[in-house]
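Q: Could you fold this chain for me?
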Amino acid sequence: MVDPRKQAFEENKLDKKLCRLVGQAIGDFDMIADGDKVMVCLSGGKDSYTLLDILLKLRERAPISFNLVAVNLDQKQPNFPSDTLPNYLRKLNIPFHIEEQDTYSIVKRVIPEGKTTCGLCSRLRRGILYRVADELGATKIALGHHRDDILETLLLNMFYGGKLKAMPPKLRSDDGRHLVIRPLAYVPEKLIERYAQTMEFPIIPCDLCGSQPNLQRAAMKKLLGEWEKEFPGRIENLFRSLHYIVPSHLLDQDAFDFQNLSIHSDLTQFIKSYESDRAIDEGVDVCAVTESSWSSLTWIDKD
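A: Sure. Below is the predicted structure, expressed as structure tokens.
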């Protein structure tokens, strides 16, 4: 039999850890400012439910004032439970908007049977959400991508796209009119899974459209899972590497001016990188990132 006191303690510890990680990401990348109206995109999956729940908690302790509005895009997929999200959001007593757009029919008409529809569906969804953000007066658009999504995207771009590119925690849209933020950027998926189970969110299946799964992304997820089991710490180091880019030690001539490099070049901005190289030679763990190295916010609960 589970000790209720121990269970309550573990749940509270998980809650605080999520708030800390999300608060750190918001602070590090200046995601939310005073007076912002943040549109939280809610799909009905574990990630977006967790995002909304943690942002609601952080708003209560934040030293700034910002508003939240939850938005769901009903794409008219077969068997989509249209009452689930409205009922859930009414209980939270927060502003929300359900946008109904039949993108499902468009995707099924354009994409051949048996092919993955996620790419086109995502582009259609993005355009609609940008329009809704304008209509609602939202200054930020919050998405529920987490740490594992970022790493999977990094590997996908390396293995299939031939470029070092991941998923940014903060992004300006191509037309320059919208800022997209990913407050779960530091959060491992396994924590979100535990939290969703604890909170008993009314999860809506993500395969209602009948699309074939993204096999390449699934392969990256499997690879990361195998690494985590076989090589403890590898995933954390891979993620930390995204914080420490050394252009002078790569091959991108647009990122570093190799052509004009000489013994007289001013490399002041790269001194930190070279010091890291010496540290590796001397056996120092340069990947160890302490909590004090992160930007701090007074509204992060560190207990």
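A (continued): The longest helix spans residues 4-28.
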